[in-house]
Structures
1.
Amino acid sequence: MSAWQAWFVARARRRFAMSRECAQLLPRVCAALADPRQPGSDDTCLEKLLDWLRDLTELEPTLNVVRDNPCLTEFFTSVLALPEPSPSILSFTLRLAGLLAASEDCFQHLQQENLLFRLFGSGGTLNRAVWEDASVRSGWVEGVHSMMHHQPALRFLCNGGGIDVIFTLQGDPSLFVASAASQLLVHMLTLSVESETTTPLSEKDCNWPACAQMIIKHIEDSLQSGCASHINQSLKLLTSLFGSCRATWTEVLWLRIAKQVESFLIEDSVQTRHMLANLLLNMSRSPVFCDTEGSFWALVTSALEHLTPVQAGPLAVGILSLHKCPQDVRIQAMTVLLQPMDCILRAASQPLEYAGLLDESVSDPSTVESLLSSKSSCASLLCQTLAHLEKLLSLIHLPVDLPYTSLLRSFVTILQFCSGLLIPATPLGSKISQILIGCGRVQKSALDALAALSERKGCDTVIGSLFDILLVYLESPNTSPTVLKKSFQAMSKWLARLPEMSCFNSQWPTEKILQDVFLVLQKRLCSPCWEVRDSSLEFLTSLIKSMRDQDEFRESLLSSEVPKLTENLLEDPESYVRASAVTAVGHLTFITYSLPESAVAGNQYNKEDTTAKLQDILSTDPESFPRRAVISIFTKWLKQGCTGQAEDTEQFVSRAIQTVERDLDWEVRIGGLELVEVFCVQALCRVGLPKCPYAPASSTVTSSIQQNESLQIFCRAKLFKFLFWSLCDYDKPVGQKACDILLVLRASLSPSSMLKDCQGAGDLSAGRGIPWLQRTLRQGSLAQNFPTDAGNGVDFEDPESMMLALGTIDLEELHDELNKSSDHVEKSPQSLLEDILATVGTIDENEADCY
């Protein structure tokens, strides 16, 4: 065990160990919980109590915990003796007993006390009226699952009839209980095979362990029962098993049931077909099956052919995401996904005008055409298909080559159908057009897929029609705000690709499309709908981020009315819009900052005016969102070097933090600390101190001069008052951030030799206020009237005083205090036990932990 692991274990033991106080409280808690006269304890407290006891069993032998605390077994006996126990208490009892029985020694101990049979066997809980409560059945399943870590527990359950109870609970009316029962059977089957098998398994029953045989027979009987619910339960169990277990014996199991599963694909009943896609997909991800060339992949191909397009879609996209898959299966999966897009293209074209997306259809398109011509299924099929294609296109490493140009054409065609611009050339096209006009669901799905397709190359030939349809959506007054937002996102991604589209540039100059886009944007920035104005500003910010280095983009933007309109929106009545306007204006500065004044003079746009306006928003805006946006932009400016010379930067940072330190929003204050952090790193790098990773090493004399220079910079910018003040902030993240920055400054500015010098400097005038400052900081957020001047002997603008403060104050202690959980006292085991006693009314009021 490493030193770090040993420290962690020791820390956990100290935190969760059974203290003397807890050992005295636990018997009273158990007695109170088992007393029917007491009001029921809060379920959250019971969960925490169970968590604490679980932690105890992980840190020391469970049997020792039970023997040292006999009140636990007495609790089980008391609850079992109750004629009508509370469902929540009985559920807790079952879960606790299962937790303790996970240890084989403790399992034997509880068996000797005859507790496990009375709790989990046919003679106890199962025959009580309280079993009708789902929480009790859930507690029983969880308790059994917890104890399933050894063979005695397996034999206890199988020999005592408990496994039949689990089979029944697979069909429980509570979906939570039914799912937990299925997961329990998977766990038991895996445990049985892996702990009781000594020789390789075969398909014959005699080679399987007894418990595994019972579960496998149940699966086989259910699959052959003809009852849809029983078949679905077994298919869910198999899906979970093949998804979690990668052992070779799973293939042996599969060979026993493969023919029965395959028969579900060709039967007329479709009640179980929808379960097959997830089952086959989990199997295809297992190395046990994906490496085989046999019947499994033939079954996958059969499933892709026989399942409906809606059922086969998830299986197809999963198969296409695999890196190991036979080529013929991949072709079939691609056909499933591309068939709807192919039908869309054929429906929109004359028979000889376009041959379709698929060169050779491997399946009958009539099913897809029928779904697309039905109002009840058209939109759903297209949305699902588009979502699957978007998922594939978003993969970084796509293991299959898709026909990107044809896909782009099909996405554009769908958007044309939805906008009513397309004149259908076929009867199918006419039906699709009537269904899709104004369908927002399909529009959003198509735009998402279109945006994902922008990451792929090879679509240049139809790029003109792409921008045409996107401009239609951006211009149309019928476009809803949500569809408009997605249209902006798609347009932004495709515009970012303009420089690499040589084919498009020769047909339609970039300048032309940008002019059209900014004309539309000008209109949308003036929309009466605030969501539209907000989306427009986000679109502008996205464009600037991706295209600000391109001359044509800068010229088109600055020659339009967009910058002026954007700046006007800094005074928008809606706070979300003002925040987006701040971000957009801040990014506009990245363009104008490096340009000569003549290039931006015509736009009445200069950085000094912009900074003043943003500073005013930071000082006076009543909503927090715009103020957060301002401090975020200021930090971005500082990182990008857009704040001028060093002296200008000092003043800029100083003004910002003097405003931020009074802000009521903690995120604004922590944003101010992030600004300070960037400023400090840049200042240290500028003078060559080692905080900068590429700064050269310097001599001791030079280092002392550099430290003094840095200190003077920080004092002039009034950083230290803000940092020390933030240590006392009511919001802990602010204090943590300030402490982190101060620790970095001390490491950079105060070498060990100077720290020693500081220890004896208490009699210096500069150090008179340091003891007071230490006392104040220890009070944390309780400190009142933190000084804003040197009234208490602390001059936060004096370099010598601040060096003494950094060298004297125990920042590590403050750091530890600030990083403690705010409820570290209330989370203690003792506090929890006191809370439970207070809840059930058996503790004096002055003893309760009222927090």
2.
Amino acid sequence: MPYLGSEDAVRELRRALCNPNVQSDQLRYRSTILKVIRAMSQGVDVSGLFSEMVKACATVDIVQKKLVYVFLCSYATLNPELSLLVINTLRKDCQDPNPMVRSLALRNMTNLRLPSLVEYVEQPLTAGLRDRAACVRRVAVLGWAKLHNLQPNSEIDAAVVNELYGLLRDPDPVVMVNCLRALEEILKEEGGVAINKPITHHLLNRLKESDVWGQCEVLKILQRYRPQSENELFDILSLLDASLVSPHPPVMAATLSLFLCLCSGLPAVSLAALERVRGPLLAACGSVSRETRFTALCHIQLLLRSLPGLMGAHYKRFFCGYAEPAYIKQRKMQVLVELVNDDNVAMLLDELKGYCTDVNTDTAQAAISAIGRIGRSYSDRCLEILTGLLGLKQEHITSAVVQTMRDLVWVCPQCSDTVCLALEGCEETLQDSQGRQALLWLLAVYGERVSSAPYTLEVFIDGVRSEASLGVKMELLTTTMRLFLCRPAETQDMLGRLLHYCIEEETDMCVRDQALFYYRLLHCGTEETRKVLQGRRSDPSLGVLIGRPAEPISQWAYSFNTLEPLTQGCVETEPASRGSPEHVTFDPKPNTDLSDTLNCSQIEKVHSGSDSASGFPYSSANVLASSLAAPLSLSLSPALGPEEFERLWMQRQASHADQGAEKLEEEEDYVCMEEQIQCPAIPHCSPQSLQAAMQLVNIQTLAFTPPHTLPWRVYLYTHTQHAHSGEAPRITLIVGELLYTGEASRRVVEIKKGTEDGDVAEEEEEAGLSGRELVSEEEEVKVTVKQQPRDDKALKGFLSILTTVLHTLSPENN
């Protein structure tokens, strides 16, 4: 918003710029132009001075030229006609003897970004590619990339492309790197710059001449090259060996990424490369820059997935500093958990115990959670620390400890005796809903061994009317029911009061329905109730699988030196897991095969009850058969941003509207399909639950409509990799939309007249026919998917997986 009095200021500046006395004095003229730039930076609209500033660019003063060019590039789009007046001056400056003036003119000629001026810019840019000064060639190369972005649909001049390929051998390393970037932009539709053996070896031999940014660009582009022989591969690795231990973290990371890409078939060489980068990574962890430290920690976590002992001898380098931010402390604690062994467990637990009383509550809870994860291997030592923390009587510490104990006894039932003794009196300190849910779950499972369990429950039940958390109420119902089965005399009266309140007075339908379910279950008898609520428990004599097996490097190599490692650990930095352990979901690693992620029996179970009703064209048997014949895997990488998703989704929207409401649109390399899936109440599912379920099968959700809002929409995407018999795996991109308009599909049953048993004759949609009775109303979600390139089998498998997820989330199935 322009400042008050800006019109007077602009008039004053115009008078000064037009004053002959000011124009004759070079310093006063430059000072006036500087005032114009200062006013522009303060938000004053000085576009009215465009013609005066055009006249001011005709000067030999380089400082004044720079100031004027800043103004002209800012307001050129608002004054396209007056901008033509600048071209003559710029073209004249392109022939100036001073290379600085020539480069300045070329740069600002392309920064005007006016399509009408393209014809005047091409000739100076072509001449700039052959200029004797390196600074002019640098600007000219990037100018062609800017010109292509200005008119992306224009034809590519082959002569210019050949000229740029020739400049890859320019003696100036910056010109060489700029050529790579320009060719990547200009030839984007053709796959980028062509990388062959001569270009590869030329770039590698000149790698050391470039700066850090240039080396990273070269190494990134070389990932597309595949050596023709093993000898050539090892020659390339020898050239890259020095960059692998570079003191610059970006160069080291880019080199290792190239190593892993080239050595995908040589795991021993890849492991040796990981050993080599241990020193540079540890040095990056001690960098002054917080961002560099955090990035190094995230990539170390990635390496530990394949080499768990890589940093074992250097665990002290991951101890937290007092002044470090919380996000770095929490990431370091995650690394420390991976480095625990018999020799250092005592020192690590001592260090983590100190973090449990950190002033930052998130850091303290993360430390307690880390102790709990170590407790799966060293339960006695960790339980001693956790029990001691309960004595501090601090709300956030007690809550985190109870949640950690809940998770620990779930995987280590042999710890239950110690946990039951520690629970006495915890309810007085717990205030947050997550901690109270964890305590209630422990009382439900081990209530017969906690002497004060009925009294603790009575406190919860007496305050149920003022309880705001839905999760606590539902957990309280389950706990009271399970405790009634093992201690009926003490809890019968409390259970009656709780069920009466939840059925008669509770306003939330979820709590009311659960109470009604338990009430009706009790009418079936105690034994039936026991079978439902008290399932099989883990055998305390069984051991626990400690740690995790080393993963192949190929599972994460594609994400190294990207932003993905920075986001993968976000789930682990949260406080202890939400809800009961039975409902905890684990995020699978990218590219996990779907046969491991989705149990075949689960798919068959869901589809057996839904194929006929939903009209889904692919049966579970066909899906499983096809998955065995040609494995299908989904992946979230490469990530798709909202802008790119919108562009892909809308680019064919106009053609869809012209063709009408077709169910299936097919092209040579593209397919668009619509399906109707019956999912009772799925639009009422929380966005968090839907997103977690989708991510479990590597489907990424980008946007949600709030629950209970019509029309309800969800946008999602994934990448499929489908291996055809005898062919290389084919990768496709699928983008999709889930749409629910609120119009349920009403179904009726026609009853045959004149029969005694009233057999059901047929089931159809209601059409106002006599002799038919409405029996159900089902909600349908419209699924629209677009795939490119086209792969029918992969699309069929994706739709089957999506249907399974939606039916699993449906309350009727839960």
3.
Amino acid sequence: MALCQLFLQSEAAYSCISELGELGVVQFKDLNPEVNAFQRKFVSEILRCDEMERKLRYIEKELKKDEIKIPDMGENPKAPAPKEMVDLEAHFDKIESELREVNTNSEALKKNFLELSELKEVLRKTQTFFAEQGDHHSIVDDAQMALVLDERGLPVHAAAVQLGFIAGVIVREKAPAFERLLWFACRGNVFLRYDAIPEPLIDPTSGNPIHKSVFIVFFQGEQLKTRVRKICEGFRATLYPCPETAQERLEMLNGVCTRLEDLKTVLNQTEDHRHRVLLNAQKEIRAWIIKVRKIKAIYNTLNMCSLAQNSIIAECWTPAHVLDQVQTALRYGTEVSGGTVPSILHRMQTKETPPTYFRTNKFTQVFQSIIEAYGVASYQEVNPAPYAIITFPFLFAVMFGDCGHGFILFLFGLWMVMSEKKLGAMKSDNEIWNIFFGGRYIIMMMGMFSVYTGLIYNDIFSLSLNFFGSSWHPKYPEANLSVSNLQLEPLTMYDNATGPYAFGLDPIWQHSENKITFSNSFKMKMSVILGIAQMLLGISLSLINHLHFRNLLNIFCEFIPEMVFMLCLFGYLIALVFYKWLTFNALCSECAPSLLIHFINMFLMKYSFPTNTTMYDYSCKKWDVSKVGCGAETVFYPNQKPIQIGLLVAGVLSVPVMLFIKPFVLRSRHNAKSRRRAKLGTVSKDALIPHEEEPSEEDMLLNQDVSINDEETPTSSAMHQHEEMGDLEEETFDFGEIFIQQTIHTIEYCLGCISHTASYLRLWALSLAHAQLSEVLWGMLFHMALAMDIKYGGGVLIFVFFIVFAVLTIAVLLVMEGLSAFLHTLRLHWVEFDSKFYIGSGFAFLPFSFKPLLEASLDEHI
């Protein structure tokens, strides 16, 4: 990674930055961190881009309102020249103004159409109300009888009193409350009839359907009329004029219908014009969006640069192997802009920590993302991602070991990999699917490794396959086969000539009663072996870091003691496991040691010896235990006691080496450096030459970095400040802080070796849980269906049980168990493996690139 300084002419800066954005290999530094965002040079251009984005957002909203999809043709237009911004702004303003004018006119027409539609319904319903006859009385007679009473409380003749009425429409849900309030407010002196409009009306503002009802209210007197009107206003009911005679109502209805037909014609023409405008915008809107994004990104980058008289100075990080490509891009940008002065790329020397950059492809990207979720690697630190490509799916498969389940997982990942172009072009908004699709390669790898471990376990949907023939041959007579509890004798029923099963576990263990006991012992030891092996790999990788950074002190005070501690204690445990596997068999099973007890006794300095050491020579043969006195706790190989004591002492002594030596060595180095400086009378570490004089102010001014315009650049002054700060940091030394840090590291490592070794037992636990769940699903569902003896309908019943078995297998064993195994594998890599060598305190290389602007959704940036 190289820190470069760019000297760009003001006229060519825009084109050069645009070309670098297309290249996407340069990360710019902000040279104006103290300047407010609204006080920078190109803030007006960015505000213009924001305004264009607002207009594009409005156009996109209108397209979505009409359900017009925006096509993604994979276009990648170049960033337009600054002078083209005026044309884009004028074009966007024209489209927005046209759409707003059309929408305003359309909304007004729709509002008018709604009012006329409501008036039509009012006229129709009131005509119906007045035409209805109930008990040979009209609605007016009913109102007269209900409202007009004489002194005795009897209804007065209809012609005696003239009633007034109001008609209108109200939202259907408000009609019952409207009726109750009229009754209480007017004390029952009103007569109300309402009826629902059968077809919903369209709200002109939101476009949502609304359900309304027509009502007519009869009352007597102006006071009640005023009260009724206020209640209608409170319920937002719309009142419409309604003639009193049937002939006038019919004439008004005909006129309203004629106006509605004319409005429909005008509305259709308006909608057609609006649709044509949107279709024209649909073809270009994605290209417009990309152009505006690129313009805004360029000006944001230019705001990070330092401005001189006629040039722009920028600082950027870029990989050293692409410097030629950056030079070519700058040269092309200068030519496009018509500039006469070439752009200058100057590689700088700096003590600043560069960003971390790893070249990845679509296969390795998912593994690198998993590692960077823990922490971005420090610059030039060992990257755990290449090792995780193998260890991650393998440890997952150890917990998920089933040939059938792994094959289904592999097919799912393979399908996504083979169809990645088609599936990637769909651009789904479903986050869960996007997660699965992004991890398609790791899913395929995990499925493939699970098939391998399933063959090792000889487990496929909780069943075993006998490919090579079992090495166990029962020799019981047929009369004894009816006994349920038969035991296979290893000495007589095991075929020592052919040896063990060719690949994986012998299928006979699937049918044994002590299957779990055997598989637990095997998987537990395997988990410890794999865990300690991976931790040793992590410690070995720390040596690469120390060698690369030339830190010999860490090699002698951290790597070697850590390796000695791990090998002398936990590496010895692995050696005991392999020794027991290779040495002991069925002949000497009664003298086979218990490794856990021996490992505990190693720390307790507790040893048990055979009673007859002259007879017992530690070989594996048929011993008489009563005479020899060997057992699970007795020593089982020569010189076991001195070897274990020596390993224990070496492991314990490595702890103070890790704890004390490094802080005191650093303290001694600092004191020696301080005495040397005091003796020479130097002012800085750069003035350690004998008899050197302090530079004068004139010399300091002459030695400053000068820009192309003979002015001190902000960059050079920043570099001087950074170097001065680095000198001050090197001169400060806090022995107490360093000693505390080393103490924490030592305690964390020693306790971590114990806890991390125990943590790897999750490989055994989840493998056991997966196997048992698979066996439960098989035994309680599909096997039960196959065992049923049903003459008719048995095939249908088996099919139903198979569907339930398949659904539960996918939902529980593949999805839930797979996710659980994935999370546990993630923890083993982050905590147990990475903590042995990976610091992860760096920051990622985030180049200025236009590629994310093309892949992101429209709503993300606009």
